[in-house]
Amino acid sequence: MYNQYMDKTYTIKETAKLTNLSAHTLRYYEKIGLLPEIQRDPNGYREYIEADISWIYFLLRLRDTGMSIENMKTFANLRSQGNQTVEERKNMLKIHRTKMMEDISKLQTNLEKINDKIAFYSSLK
């Protein structure tokens, strides 16, 4: 069971500031299953702990690298099932990594073409 005296807790406002997410987005992420059930104080206010913040940062990395909300939900669901899903989660991340590497390659090619065009325009002076 959670012991509120073991970890520093953060309000939803503090968590929003730390993660650059709105309180609305944090509540939405909880509602759709991306966040585990967040602990509540005696008044019913959400209390985020360091583990929650760390998980949110990981979700943001997944989102920022193009993982769909649906795949993020699948990953979060697998995570909630414990260590028996480690292989499935690892495989999801490997697939995501491959897609990221393809995206990086495309971006690199596009950057080179843009640099070529800048060089061409510079030569016209």
How would you describe what is shown here?
The protein is mainly alpha-helical and 125 residues long. It has one domain (12-123): Multidrug-efflux Transporter Regulator, Chain: A, Domain 2 (Orthogonal Bundle), CATH 1.10.1660. Helix content is 66%, strand content 3%. The protein contains five helices and two strands; from the N terminus they run H-H-E-E-H-H-H. The chain has a two-stranded antiparallel ribbon. Strand 1 and strand 2 form a beta hairpin. Helix 4 runs antiparallel to helix 5. The model has no long low-confidence stretch (mean pLDDT 94).
CATH level-two architecture: Orthogonal Bundle
Shape: elongated
Please, how many helices?
5
Counting structural domains, the number is 1
- Work out the number of β strands: 2
Quote the CATH topology. Multidrug-efflux Transporter Regulator, Chain: A, Domain 2
- Structural classification: mainly alpha
Strand line-up in the sheet with most strands = 1-2
Radius of gyration: 20 Å
Order of helices and strands: HHEEHHH
Fraction in beta strands: under 5%
Rounded to the nearest angstrom, the distance between the terminal CA atoms is 71 Å
Report the average pLDDT across residues. 94
The percent of residues in helical segments reads 55-70%
For this structure, what is the CATH class? Mainly Alpha
Major beta sheet summary: 2 strands, antiparallel
Domain HTH merR-type: 9-78
Protein name: MerR family transcriptional regulator
Keywords: DNA-binding, Transcription, Transcription regulation
InterPro entries: DNA-bd_dom_put_sf, MerR-type_HTH_dom, MerR_fam, Tscrpt_reg_MerR_DNA-bd
